Amino acid sequence: MSMLQLPIDCDQQPLPFQDEIWPGESGQGYLLRLAAQNGLGGLARIKTMLGCSRFQTLYAQDAPQLAHWFGASVQRLSYALEANDGNKRGESATYVGHRLGRSYFLNRSHPRVCPDCVHELGYCRAAWDFTLTVACVRHQRLLIDRCPACTLPLKWTRPDLCLCDCGYPWETLDFRSCATDGELLIAQLIDLRMDDQEPFTRGAPTWDGPAGDEMDAIRLLVKDLSLDGLFRTLFAFATAAGYEAEFPSERRVRAAMPKAQQTIAMSIAVGTKLTRQERFSLTSSPSVLLDLLREVSTDFRASAIDMSVAQSLFGAFQRCKLARHPNHFSQSQLVLF
């Protein structure tokens, strides 16, 4: 009788194959890895054992029971699973030690992987669980969010780390796609804040951006921000792009990975323009943009650099909103650093 055929007992003893969660490993990726080793067929079985829907995200509150089954320390597994901060609107969470002020900063339901990293490192990285991580700096490529064989979106309920529900292993069918410099820059900025930064970069070719990198000013602006501050700044830039008078109109995409790529491209375009101190004009200042920045100044847990950058950008966008014909301001009048 296989493990899949065994009756479910939520009080069962620890499962045969156990392991500690690795630094920088995604909590859900860890559980998928151990589910595969124990012949459970994926996370769906684990969620059934917990008595929850197969579509439900696994949270830090589930860590004690999961650690009992799979051998991780409760503290480390809880750290690698999302912890809701008690906000009724679900707008904030903590993940791998980073407090995030918006739920959409995390990508819960549309997993992405670098097959090369899974082959070399043996686990799914927590860095891939953030919405704006679309590229792998180690291999200078895009992550995959669809099976190269059947082209269907990847799911956390798949049977193994690099195995689709359709049965094809990605390592034999992987088609590499090149990432843009902007996508690699954002991935690098996120990687610098991850627990597996050292093993992830060991032996990998260095990526420093193209010669004469036009994004150096953006890197300088955001390099000392918290992860929450980084995401707030990037999403504020992308939101501003949709209201910028001279920005070409672009239809917003809905699929998670292309949407993230579009957000990065828009944020890099606006961020480059602002940090070059070029004239910038908005048709209006949407409340979502101003709220992203305004909330930082009232958050007692925010760092000084987060507050400084947020206040500078908030003032910049407000001045733009109040400007008259033509509706613009000169960034040379502002202090962003």
Structural class: mainly alpha
The count of β-strands is 5
Written as H for each helix and E for each strand, in order along the chain, the element string is HHHHEEEHEEHHHHHHH
Radius of gyration based on Cα positions: 21 Å
The share of residues in helices is 25-40%
Count up the helices: 12
For the report, how would you describe the main beta sheet? 3 strands, antiparallel
Low-confidence stretches: 1-8, 322-337
Shape: globular
How far apart, in Å, are the first and last alpha carbons? 64 Å
Give average pLDDT, whole number: 84
Main β-sheet, spatial strand arrangement: 1-2-3
Quote the beta fraction.
under 5%
Summarize the structure.
With 337 residues, this protein is mainly alpha-helical. The chain is 38% helix and 4% strand.
Can you walk through the features of this model?
- The chain has 337 residues and is mainly α.
- The chain has twelve helices and five strands.
- The chain has helices at 27-37, 43-50, 63-70, 74-79, 115-121, 181-191, 197-201, 216-222, 227-241, 256-275, 287-297, 304-322, and strands at 83-84, 93-95, 98-100, 135-136, 141-142.
- The strands form two sheets. It has a three-stranded antiparallel beta sheet with strand order 1-2-3, with no helix packed on it. The protein has a two-stranded antiparallel ribbon with strand order 4-5.
- Helix 9 packs across helix 10, helix 9 (227-241) packs antiparallel against helix 11 (287-297) and helix 11 runs antiparallel to helix 12.
- Residues 1-8 and 322-337 have low confidence and may be disordered.
